Amino acid sequence: MKNLLAYNTFKINSTCDNLFEFYDIAGLKLLLTSYGSGVKVLGGGSNVLMMTSHFDTIFINRIKGIQILDENEDYCLVEVGAGENWHQFVMWAVYHNLGGLENLALIPGTVGAAPIQNIGAYGTEQQSSFVSLKALNRKGLFTTVFENAVCEFGYRDSVFKNELKDQFIITHVTYRFDKKPIANNSYKDVKEKLQSKNITHPSIKDIAETVIEIRSAKLPDPKVIGNAGSFFKNPVISKSAFENLVVNFPDMPHYLVDESFIKIPAAWLIDQSGLKGYRKGDTGTHINQALVIVNHGSATGEEIFDMAMHIQKVVFEKFKVTIEPEVNIW
Ligand code: FAD
Ligand code: NAP
Q1: For 5-18, how does the pLDDT look when each residue is reduced to its tens digit (9 = 90+)?
Q2: Which ligand is nearest to the CA of 158?
């Protein structure tokens, strides 16, 4: 029996009977043939809450490699193994002055998980540089290429969280980088931090370094305290629902998604519900970041899930807005 403590950033003490790493498609096919299509697949375990105390079989993605497929003076197409560490890949691109993903520096996890929830931060989502991915069908053992348009990327969302959930294992992802990159400093925190450093014309390296500084100062490090980043997605509500809500909460921060929908920061809703830094037993919300549920020591997956449901209920009672988990519940 294997312990999974080191394989999930929430530091949940679940176990499994079989734990295998795969390094290429052939190895993955062999494992699927032996253990069946219903196994669990992990990258870095930074977006999973293990509610189940014991699993049968877990595969860990270790497919590595960064390969330039095509380039000209304007762009560079790069295929990367899904088991590569996301942050290291971003920094590889920054080192080669390839622009597009630098605002996503220091996001934990693997490249293969990035398209699944279309990771985003500081004004960028991976979809804006994403070209395609290769994935192995769990049951048929055939490889399919998914181009950007068919991935149905949305806010922390893709087809792999919906219709194709648990049907494919992503093995490679291709990104298109800009060789004449224009730094994106539109996000308030990034802009202010650059100003404080007197950087008026930031390079993509400046952006990556600034994002790393902001994140390191603000976000709880899973090496120090168990967590999976933002537990909930920011709710997106209709304009009419927003107009009703803002009458009672005129200070509510909000961002226009399009002409019909508005995004409300879930962290603000939790904070206003009196739950920032709330603790019960070994779980609660982080003292500086209400959206992050933490494991103070030996919380179980169930205790963390109960905490999440409590937060969801209290927020709903106050605002009549439902906040949905972003984290995958296993
Ligand atoms: P895992 O947790 O291992 O897996 C997540 C899900 O994807 C699971 O359901 C798993 O089965 C599935 N999966 C993983 N790999 C594959 C594959 N190759 N094929 C098919 N399915 C697969 N997210 C953001 O969007 N923005 C942020 O700014 C951000 N900041 C974070 C900060 C912290 C401190 C933490 C802990 C998390 C943060 N996250 C953020 C969440 C997380 O880092 C991302 O979702 C990341 O992409 C998860 O990668 P992973 O390899 O750890 O995925
Ligand atoms: P923040 O800057 O305090 O902002 C709170 C929320 O407001 C964010 O979630 C962000 O939405 C939204 N927001 C801020 N400025 C915006 C703008 N100009 N346009 C649209 N929306 C805006 O957030 P934070 O907690 O410090 O996080 C900083 C960034 O890192 C955010 O992008 C956040 O998504 C990302 N992050 C994500 C995770 C995760 O696990 N998913 C964990 C930590 C940080 P968005 O979330 O849509 O950007």
Answers
A1: 999 999 999 999 99
A2: 1
